Every structure is written in structure tokens, then in C-alpha cells.
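Hi Y.,

Following your request, here is the sequence exactly as I used it, all 254 residues.
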Amino acid sequence: MKFRPCIDLRNGKVVQIVGGSLKDDNAANPVTNFESLDSPARFARQYQADNLPGGHVIALGPGNETAALSALTAYPGGLQMGGGITPDNAGQYLDAGASHVIVTSYVFSKGRVDMNRLSALVKAVGKDRLVLDLSCRKKEDTFFIVTDRWQTFTDVAVTPDTLGQLSAFCNEFLVHGVDVEGLCQGIQADLVTLLGGHSPIPVTYAGGASRFSDLDHVRTLGKGRVDLTIGSALDIFGGTIPYEKVVAWHRQNA
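Below is the corresponding structure, written out as C-alpha cells. Let me know if you'd prefer a different format.
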């Protein structure tokens, strides 16, 4: 199990938000936990210095291209890029240094998996450089993939069968537990357990981490097979979990 860092971008700035509050309308202001005066590139260089590969840069809406490219350039090969990715623009991020591109809405279109679009992405970037974002929200007792700034439910449930089928088209999964994203009130244990028990490829979980012990909690629930991203709860993003302590844990356990 690894700790995976993150750089979330809104209007070109590094932020941490409450995921469920992000709307499709760029004028609508999400609930923001943190906004940094430091550049995205500075965070990227820090992650590189601490040997933390496999983190993700996520563009939360338009106006983030320059900021994203600066982070990718600062840590070539060390960060994945997500947010508005299509076959037409994926190449520029890979060329700038992204190790992978992360895709949700382009593939999960009109409530289902668009296999033509998924095939086009695989053809454009290659399976080994594609991460499928299966970020989800719970409806009754089932997690369903959500798109359009995490506001629209698809008909695609996160199940063992879904994980198995989609793993044939990508290198990794990224899964935000959207209902708890940014709230720092605890992880979604049942989602982590599902991913650890059934994902046949590497998977990173994000959402709700609130204390240092969540690293060991995720390691146990995910059987050591689920990596963890911590955002708002880290002290570098205004939270209380010491980033340096997390880095030390990663070095001992990765």
C-alpha cells in the first residue's frame, strides 16, 4: 500500500473542496476547505523530493490548463492528470510529463459505459497510460459511478463484475468516495473493502480521511491492495495530519 499525493486545481489555484458541492456551473462556488498561495509546481516538486510517485492532478473545471501543465512539467513521470480528458487533449498532458491520464465523464456518457469512446481512448493513449476514475456515490446499498462534477448518477454500479470488466481497458482505477470527499469525517469503509477484495489492478481510494490512523485502517480493510489519497486533512492543506509523518509512513510501508 502507498500514500498517493494530490494537486486539486480550481481557477488555476491549488484547493481542497467538499466534492459533492462542485457544480457544473463554473460560477457556482463549491465549499472550499483550503486555497493555497503556493504554485502547483511547488507542490509537485515537494512530492518529487519526497519520492511520492503516482499522485494525481485534477482540474476542477476550466481555467486550469496552465497550472496543470506547470505541475506535470515540475515532476515528469510522477503525476497523473485528470479533468476533462479526451483523446484530443490527452497527448499534450502526456507530452508535458503526466505518467497517465484519468478519465470519467468522457467514457461514462449518458448513464452508461460508452465502449466506442473507451476504445478510442485506449487507442489514443494506450491501456498502460489510462486510469479510469470510478468515483461514486451511494444509492441505497450500492455505489454508482457519478459524472459531471460528481453530480450525475450513471447506471454503472461499482461491483466485482464491473471492476473485472473495466480492468481490461486501463492500468489503474481512481475512486473518490464522493459522499465523504473533503468532509474529514472518516473513510467509506465498505467501499475500501469492496475495492480491496475485488479490484484486479492497482486502485487508489480518496475521500474522508481524517486522522493518521486511517492509513493503517485502509491498509487493513483493503488487504494492502488499496492506496490512499489524503487531501483536506493534511496540514499542507490546512488540516491536522502532519504531511511529514505520512511521508515517513509511506517509506516504511510502500
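DSSP finds eight helices and 15 strands in the chain.

Thanks again,
Q.
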